[in-house]
Design a protein that fits this description.
- The complex is a heterodimer of chains A (about 70) and B (about 725).
- With about 70 residues, chain A is of the alpha+beta class.
- Helices cover about 65% and strands about 10% of the residues of chain A.
- Chain A is elongated, with a radius of gyration of 15 Å.
- Chain B is mostly helical and about 725 residues long.
- Helices cover about 80% and strands about 0% of the residues of chain B.
- Chain B has 26 helices and no strands.
- In chain B, helix 7 runs antiparallel to helix 8 and helix 10 packs across helix 22.
- The C terminus of chain B is likely disordered.
- Classes of the chains: A alpha+beta (about 70), B mainly alpha (about 725).
- Chains A and B meet through helix 1 and helix 2 of A and helix 3, helix 6 and helix 9 of B.
């Protein structure tokens, strides 16, 4: 996959798109987990949330940069 | 000997531990905030240095601006802010693209944009207001560096965007992950505090030993409590899935609390008047009230959890079943007395007391079910929290920012001052940040003091300390104490603006970056430019329509009067809650001005409480009148009475006041006749009685001395000479 793409002739890193996609995915996942009450069994919900985000973004990033 | 020594050491250690626990309770949270702030700023600095962005200070400053002590902000909210930043950058970009050759047009455009953003930040609340601040600030920030080299504007814009976004994200992650102060904890403590405060208020206002000013400030604290719960709730909904589930119940809790306090205020006014006339009815009511105090207030420990709230609710329910019988007994005792006016007052007071108990009971029940996670399926969702911001005042704020930018811009162009851009940026930043402050002019003063001290500190740091420091670790270590001073001031409410100004200025002028530049002349010139910008913004807040001036107060009074007009005519669904919250919101604006300064302010405050009373009674009246089929003359009378009231509150004058009173009196007469004739009309007796109560309340509130003074400043009071002024 290309490292950068041209948006209206401005070069934008593809990682940025991956970032946006992971944010959206994480928001949806967060809602679902909140509704199912997953966070009640977690010691530190925000840290958990951040870690989940890092995992998602890491996977997306590796996929983009492969 | 040695045993003695260990004992001594042990007791000393115990004392030290005790002190530590005490200290961490009092100061711990504040210091945690300071260190979180520093961590966020350094994280932002480190990442921007790694990415070779040319201004790490922008990221650091943004992180510190965005950081809030209580609200943990996660990605959702950060995205809101980032959106605002993008809007600001785009506006800046557009302005540069259009007017890079035309300084006058460029300044005009920038002034309009920052003015709009400032108006928005004064108009909206919470994170919307923040978004507006960021949009204005980033456009100005962008201009500062692109004006000297317009060809580079696109790369500058994208770098600025990256830096600001980085700052926002760092602040978000740090405040959420490191020792988060959960919003749900804040909600719990708010709800507990308010019960304690309310009970204290009930006690104080009925003991009669507490001064007027103190009672007023207690009331205002309760109002502040309601608004802070609403603000926490609206933030928490965005972030905490658990809070989202309980959202409806929280709103219900707040709206019920408002109802309880209003009813209590009305009851207290009435009781005071009955006591002054020292009638048997007053004494009887006092007995009744004392027994209420025994059951609910003294025995009731402050319900700290759901169970205790359950118990309190049960006690109140038990008392409610008792009170009906006691009222009947009392009524028999005082009917011999005969004065119809006093009987009327007594009946109204009893009705109010019962309503108060009903509402308190409902409130306690909601409180008790608050921790339950599952939501009730059938709760109607018509509880709105209305915020009332005067658009004219918000536009004034925007106009001020516009004027500020134009003045500085004109000076810059006319004098060809090389550091004009710094002044321009800071006039924009200061105006938009000050617009959402409760008391802008004093905040502006403090901010200026903070800026001066920040400049001094940066001078010492940059030219005496920093040249000896080598590497990122030492940079952070040496910067930390300087930042700690400012941030520590920032958590003290009285010095918050000083601390904020200091920190901003320190970072702006220190300007840490990968390749440091040490140029004292440039440093001082830039510093002076920024100081001029802040000073201009502060002066304009003092000079152009200051918030403590009489114009602002007239606007407030007008807005309050308009609340009653709304109560008379707006659609009924959810009106009660909207009215109560809107009036409290207006009131809170007034409470922000620190002290009740003069007689005029006092009357304004009195007007607010009367407006609350009248509006609520009007809404009750409309509810009762709308729910049943009234006989023709009565229905018409109610309509006429409502429009007379609305007319009076729209344009107060002595004649309209008389007309409104007359309308109310006529409806009361009609209802009395209806009750006496006992005609088989469709509406039941108790509805008519409730309507009588509402009308009586409206009438007494209308005749209130304070209302007359506040509403019609030059009204000939002799017109109402028959009325005893009862609000001493």
């Amino acid at each position: 996959m290309p490292r950068e793409f041209a948006l209206l002739d401005a070069l934008v890193p593809t990682l940025f798109l991956a970032f946006l996609a992971s944010v959206i995915f994480q928001t949806v996942l967060d809602r679902i987990m909140g509704r199912c009450g997953v966070y009640r069994h977690v010691w530190h919900p925000p840290l958990f949330r951040l870690s989940v985000f890092v995992c998602i973004f890491g996977v997306c990033g590796l996929f983009v940069l492969r | 000997m040695s045993a003695f020594a260990t004992d001594a050491v042990g007791s000393l250690l115990g004392k030290v531990r005790q002190e530590l626990v005490f200290w961490s309770k009092a100061e711990g949270a504040g210091w945690v905030f300071v260190f979180k702030n520093i961590l966020a700023a350094f994280l932002a600095m480190w990442i921007s240095m790694q990415l070779r962005l040319d201004q790490p200070r922008t990221a650091m400053m943004t992180a510190i601006i965005v950081m809030q002590p209580q609200t943990g902000l996660v990605l959702v909210k950060s995205i809101y802010r980032i959106g605002a930043t993008i809007a600001g950058i785009l506006a800046g970009l557009l302005l540069l693209a259009l007017f890079a050759q035309e300084p006058v047009l460029y300044l005009l455009g920038l002034a309009v944009w920052v003015g709009l953003c400032t108006a928005g930040s004064a108009f909206y609340r919470n994170f919307k207001s923040y978004g507006c601040v960021l949009a204005g600030y980033s456009a100005a920030m962008m201009g500062q560096f692109s004006i000297p080299e317009p060809m580079a504007f696109f790369s500058i814009a994208s770098t600025r965007l990256t830096e600001i976004t980085l700052g926002i994200l760092c602040a978000g992650v740090v405040s959420d992950v490191v020792f988060p102060r959960r919003l749900s904890d804040a909600i719990t403590s708010n709800v507990q505090n308010r019960y304690a405060e309310f009970i204290a208020f009930v006690r104080a206002s009925l003991s009669g030993t507490v001064g007027h000013a103190e009672l007023d400030s207690m009331r205002l604290r309760l109002v502040g409590n309601v608004l802070s719960l609403e603000s926490i709730r609206s933030n928490a909904v965005l972030e905490d899935p658990e809070v989202r589930n309980r959202d409806i119940r929280l709103r219900k809790l707040n709206s019920e609390f408002m109802a309880v306090t209003t009813t209590f205020n009305s009851f207290q006014q009435l009781l005071k008047r009955l006591n002054r006339q020292s009638s048997p009815a007053g004494r009887a009511l006092n007995d009744l009230w004392a027994s209420f105090g025994e059951t609910v207030v003294t025995k009731g420990e402050i319900p700290a959890n759901a169970d205790a709230a359950h118990r309190a609710a049960r006690r109140i329910a038990a008392f409610r079943s008792v009170i009906g019988r006691r009222v009947e007994e009392l009524r028999k005792n005082i009917t011999d007395d005969g004065d119809p006016h006093i009987m009327f007052d007594f009946a109204t007071a009893v009705e109010l007391l019962q309503r108060f108990l009903r509402e308190l009971h409902a409130y306690m029940k909601t409180y008790a079910t608050l921790p339950n996670a599952e939501s009730e399926p059938n709760t109607p969702d018509d509880i709105d929290f209305a915020v009332r911001t005067d658009p004219v005042v918000a536009i004034m704020m925007g106009g001020r920012a516009f004027v500020g930018i134009m003045v500085v811009g004109w000076f810059w162009i006319a004098s060809a001052w090389p550091y004009g851009t710094s002044a321009l940026t800071f006039v924009a930043i200061a105006s938009s940040i000050l617009a959402s402050a409760p008391d802008p002019s004093s905040s502006a003063n403090k901010m200026f003091v903070g800026n001066l001290s920040g400049l001094a500190a940066a001078l010492v740091y940059k030219f005496l300390v920093l040249p000896d420091m080598d590497g990122f670790t030492l940079l952070c270590a040496s910067m930390m104490p300087f930042l700690m001073i400012g941030l520590y001031f920032r958590i003290r409410p009285a010095f918050a603006d000083i601390g904020f100004g200091y920190t901003m200025f320190f970072l702006q002028t220190t300007n840490p970056s990968n390749t440091m530049q040490f140029n004292p002349v440039d440093f001082l010139n830039d510093g002076c430019g920024v100081l001029v910008g802040v000073a201009v913004a502060g002066c304009l807040y003092r000079v152009l329509m200051p918030t403590s001036g009489s114009w602002f107060k007239r606007r407030l009074a007008r807005q309050l009067r308009h609340q009653v007009v709304m109560a008379c005519f707006a659609p009924l669904a959810g009106l009660g809650s909207r009215f109560e919250s809107g009036t409290r919101d207006v009131l809170h604006k007034q409470a922000a001005v620190p002290k009740i300064q003069n007689e005029r302010d006092r009357t304004l405050l009195a007007l607010m409480f009367s407006v609350m009373e009248i509006g609520r009674a009007v809404i009750h009246l409309r509810h009762d009148a709308g729910a049943h089929l009234l006989p023709q003359p009565l229905a018409e009378g109610v309509q006429e009475c409502l429009s007379a009231m609305a007319l009076f509150f729209r344009q107060p004058s002595a004649t309209l006041h008389a007309a409104a009173l007359d309308g109310v009196g006529r409806v009361i007469g009609t209802i009395c006749r209806e009750i006496e004739s006992a005609s088989p009309c469709a509406c039941p007796q108790n509805v008519l009685n409730r309507m009588l109560t509402s009308l009586h309340l409206i009438r007494t509130a209308l005749m209130d001395y304070d209302v007359l003074i506040a509403v019609t400043p030059h009204a000939p009071l002799t017109t109402f000479s028959g009325v005893t002024p009862h609000a001493a």
